[in-house]
What does this fold into?
Amino acid sequence: MRNILITVMMLVVVILLFNAIINKDTTGTKAQIESQGNSANTKISTMLTP
It folds into this structure.
């Protein structure tokens, strides 16, 4: 029973850390990857247009 409780608590901590680090609104990893990808797409599209 104790092992299950510890496992559940660890999963909750992992979920909270994921939300705090990855899914943060403007400074999270996901937002940074999206902004870098958008700027790369813009640069590529300007290079391809004559």
The mean pLDDT is 91.
